Amino acid sequence: MPTPAPTLTSEQLEAFGQELDAIRARVVADLGERDADYINKVIRAQRGLEVAGRALLFLGFLPPAWIGGTAALSLSKILDNMEIGHNVMHGQYDWMKDERLNGKTFEWDTACPGDQWRHSHNYMHHTHTNIVGKDRDIGYGILRMSEEERWHPYYLGNPLYAALLAIFFQYGVALHDLEAERLATGETSLAEKRGMLGEIWQKVRGQTLKDYVLFPLLSGPSFPFVLAGDASANLARNLWSFMIIFCGHFPDGTQQFSEEQAENESRGEWYYRQLLGSANLTGGKLFHVLAGNLSFQIEHHLFPDLPAHRYADISTEVRKVTDRYRIPYNTGPLHRQFGSVVRKIGKLALPSLPGRGGDAPTGVVGAVQDGSQEFPAAA
Amino acid sequence: MPRRVGRLLLRSSLLEALAYPHGVDRYVELVRPLLVKRQVRAEVIAVRCQTPKSATLSLRPNDSWNGIRAGQFVGLSVEIDGVRETRPYSPASSQHAAGGALELTVSTHPEGKVSRYLRDRARRGMIVGLTQADGDFVLPDVHPERVLLISGGSGVTPVMAMLRTLCDEGFTGEIGFLNYARSSELALYGPELDQLGERHRGLRIVRGFTRGRGSPLAGRFCREHLRAVTGDHATASTFVCGPPTLIDAVRGVWAKDGLAEPAVETFTPPALSFDTDCAVGVVSFAASGREAANSGLPLLEQAEDAGLAPEHGCRMGICNTCSCRKTAGAVRNVLTGEISTAIDEQIRICVSVPLGDVALDL
Q1: DSSP state, B104?
Q2: ipTM of the complex
Q3: Which residues of A92-102 are buried (b: 16+ CB within 10 A; e: fewer)?
Q4: Which residues 282-311 of B are in CB contact (within 8 Å) with A?
Q5: What pTM value is reported for the model?
């Protein structure tokens, strides 16, 4: 259970930042064949699962083949999007100087064009993590995920929108950088977004053609089975990635920040905000791989460009540092973390009652003068 | 026939649509690395050692290879400790070699990561990456009547390619070849040069050993050496490849005689300057054709100062938005202090400071 956030002086924050920089430097110096072998192994596994899954689905009229094929294809899409796509696009393997794993040009097997993801995620979300009004991952412009956002009767649908977002997550992510809610309010115009829409259309067309037209048609009489298998695999990936990603910044105890709080941050303060705004998931090795190691969300936000399979080792070092500074380290099993996210989605569907405590942005970043700010107790 | 059908199938747009968005290559290469259609790769078909400090590799490039003109170089890449390292090498093979085979002679340096790796690890069957051939150190399409080749040490390779190509084409003009090595033990292509010299009329080869005994020529390049190989260097098309000292010496003679500069090639890396207070060199933005004197600031700022608007995000080395291909030069990462000199790599320009001349694909 996280302890209340301490108040650190600017000297302490600087020293804290240097300790994290040192962890980073040690890992960077050690990068090599082991990391290259790892990502190549994951890619090999993903391609193998994909080919096997699609082959089995051609025999989809046999129930065991349909189940096996759908499972293999689901795993393949999960690996492709999370441990490979998300991580490679962060530039985690750029040091390998392999054009196939170049973070700037990599494309993944999902509806969202890689270039738009790089902007909305790598830059907007990772730089402005949990800053209400700047980090569009807070609610994706659809949900109310912070007390700071004014309530409106629209938000009564919060749980429904969340469920729809989970089911159609790949399309939610694809439309993310489009800022649909700003289109609705007239803050931006469709004309401005034409280029983006074109890219999204291209990508969605390619994905749809492959999964819902070509593979089903090629299978001949297995058409309906392949179609259903592909749709199920996409759905499984959508639900899984929604769950893992919503556990990154919304479980009880994670903090949100205002734009003023994050102004003129030092590197130490930036690290501190990342730490207070992120939450980890506990689990076994396979669980972490399937989560793209985003189960180490804290480490990922401290070092977004270090190979994610290193986060497990890095987390023990980070933990030592946070313990020393008495900084809360938010971690827990999936059912508990996701349970608290679901409760938050439900609670924020209703207007905040005066005097009701909870999740107001109480983030404490920077040298705190009066030291009287309180950290919301964890679940 | 089935092979041709297979290749056509691999290039079909249907297969490409099924492999979207990764592309067919990313699946095929896991089984047959040479079958990729978008990357040049080559298989090592033979390895021999002419000298203790070199390895000579025969390579068979895949179907993506566009061919080469004698004298050009290729980037050869191998994976060393997880990192794809690319270095330029000038093949020594004739551009008419059977099956488009390439011959690279790699000279090892004590600090040379790639050259030592190739000497120690290159084996028949190994797959290496290649770039398409590049460089304008080439024979003119219409061959001149008289050709003069001058090489020092490992610089023999591109002029060897020219010599072999001319011999294969039955060139009837006059060729002079002034070939330097440290000693006869370290001389590359010695026996073959002797043979070619005997076989081809009009080819005159003179060899010098700058440190060894028994040299037909004493010491380093000078006017006397030139006289030993040609009666009239002024009218010959001249190609020089070797260390900067040799190139400077040749240029000196040519300048004194009031002749146009000879064609030159050298692969010796520049001495690095680490002092950002006195930044040197020129930053060139290849895609936009702009150039600016290095101001010592991170490349992103220099690009903006030059009127460009590169994509960028955090400006602190976190988000990778500004990552850009560096095609030449050395940069220092201001976060890590790490210096990288690779010829073809992605760098984050918001945290990279140039050390001397740098070329970016911007």
Answers
A1: E
A2: 0.90
A3: bbbbbbbbbbb
A4: none
A5: 0.86
